[in-house]
Amino acid sequence: MAALLVLAASTEFLLVAGAAYFAAVLYYRLILLHSPDAALYIQESLLISTLQLLVSIGLRHYSRIQTQPRHAFLWSGASGVFLVFSFLLSTIFLLKISADYSRAIVIVQAASVTLAVLCTRTIWYSLLQPAIASGLIDARRIILIGDPDHCLQFSARAMATGIRTIRCFDFPVVREDCSGRVRPGAVQALPDVLQLATECRPLRANDIVILTSESDVRSALALASVLSDLPVDVHVVPVGSIDLMAVSRITQFGNMVTMRIFQSPLTPFNRAIKRALDIVAAIVGLILASPLFVIVPLAIKLDSRGPVFFRQTRHGYNNEPIRVLKFRSMSVMEEGDNFRPVARHDPRVTRLGRVLRQTNIDELPQLFNVLGGDMSMVGPRPHPTAQNETFAELISSFYRRHNVKPGITGWAQVNGYRGDTDTLEKMQRRLEHDLHYIDNWSLLLDLKIIVMTLFSRKAYWNAY
Q: Is residue 104 within 8 Å of residue 125, measured between CB atoms?
């Protein structure tokens, strides 16, 4: 695994150097129509690639590939490029050598290097992650200490992420004094504990995991103290709490350390970024769709009797009620407990309404909801209140999908989970995708979903 990570980092180093150099050369020859000083841009390109490599190593980008989602791995690369060019420009300014460098070339180089980093990391992630998951590559080697059944269960879960168990040991007996307290010094005197440490040493594991039951918790610290003599990471996992710890993070809370089970999906900074994208995208969308706001109302009036727009109360951020705006596509306007989901070949849908729904044009007025701040361009689709209340009683954590603003489109919709939810399984699959989006939000993911909404066939499945 280490050799592959070195190879990946080396590949990125070479491609970044090549991208920086050829970006400068092509700019000179295609735009300025003459050849550049090769020596100058070779040195600069090597400097850029070296700085990028140092940033990647210093921030442990590649060593975390096993535990990072794809978007986080790519985002760390793009952030590294930003740091590199920030340092480069600062150096050029301080040394007063800006006359030798064109601002346009620096911009072109930054764009080409960013593209090279993203492409390189996408390819390596696509190669390494399946190999790790299938066990072809041992990402980490671990020793388990605990009950054999617990070790077997933990080993199976660890193998799914490429972590291979090389040995299991029973939990040793730890001596206690008459008060019932563990005496750390006494542990070192027990032959079985010392023998355990001796047997672990030649195995050259990366980690030792102590699986503790309720009765072993007090002994775990003393055992870990003995194992600290080995050059490995020592972990303690309470048996029965593996699922809880899988979603937990150890955090600093004031002057204390806590186990944070859930966190707010978006930081204030992320909310500001997402809001800025919403405003820009909504304004652009309204400008591009402005002819439809003239044509569609006229068509609705000619097709059937009733208002042009349909407003319905739905749950928004933090379960607060919002009024969602749509072009009317049905002959009825149901609200509250009277709501009945639309089914395939539903007679309530008008002839024009069927076209509007299949093309998602009926959702366009929600761009005004986005501008008003009630909705986002991307997020879990808002359900009618009656439907929400029904499924909240059947599915745990259902309302967690309201921890972000609802969206005009979402991860569930672009993966084909839209339309009628006449079975519990369909709603569960939709919820799984909504929670995946919430737990893995990034600006790139929002942009990806917007593009998929426009061009992916799955985004139009079950639209009726």
A: no
SS3 326: strand
Contact 38, 20 (CB under 8 A): no
Q: CA-CA distance, 219 to 335, in Å (whole number)?
A: 60
Q: Cα–Cα distance between 438 and 434 in angstroms, integer?
A: 6
Contacts 24+ apart (CB under 8 A), 165-170: 166/141, 166/142, 166/203, 166/205, 167/143, 167/199, 167/200, 167/203, 167/205, 168/143, 168/144, 169/143, 169/144, 169/145, 169/196, 169/199, 169/200, 170/145, 170/146
Question: Which of 168-177, 203-212, 431-440, 452-461 shows the lowest per-residue confidence on average (mean pLDDT)?
Answer: 168-177
* CATH value of 140-260 in 3.30.70, 3.40.50, 2.60.40, 3.40.109: 3.40.50
Q: What pLDDT band is residue 178 in, cutting at 50, 70 and 90?
A: very low
Task: For residue 357, give the amino acid letter.
Answer: R
Of 445, 433, 446, 442, nearest to 278 by C-alpha is 446
Q: Is the pLDDT assigned to residue 187 strictly greater than 50? A: no
Phi, psi (degrees; rounded to nearest 5) at 409: -135, 170
Average pLDDT, the chain: 82
Render 80-145 in DSSP notation, one character per residue: HHHHHHHHHHHHHHHTT-GGGS-HHHHHHHHHHHHHHHHHHHHHHHHHHHHHHHHTSS--EEEEEE
Helix (H, G, I), strand (E, B) or coil at 163: strand
Sequence-separated (6 or more) residues with CB below 8 Å from residue 97:
none
Could you give the CA distance from residue 16 to residue 396 in angstroms, rounded to a whole number?
Answer: 47
Domain with CATH 3.40.50 in the chain: 140-260
Is residue 196 very low, low, confident or very high in pLDDT (cuts 50, 70, 90)?
confident
What tokens were used for 407?
């969206």
- Contacts of 235-244 spanning 24+ positions with Cβ under 8 A: 235/207, 235/208, 235/209, 235/210, 236/209, 236/210, 236/212, 237/154, 237/209, 237/210, 237/211, 237/212, 238/212, 238/214, 239/146, 239/147, 239/150, 239/211, 239/212, 239/213, 240/213, 242/153, 242/154, 242/157
pLDDT tens digits for range 126-135: 887 777 666 6
Instruction: List, for residues 407-424, the tens digit of each pLDDT value.
Output: 999 999 888 887 666 678
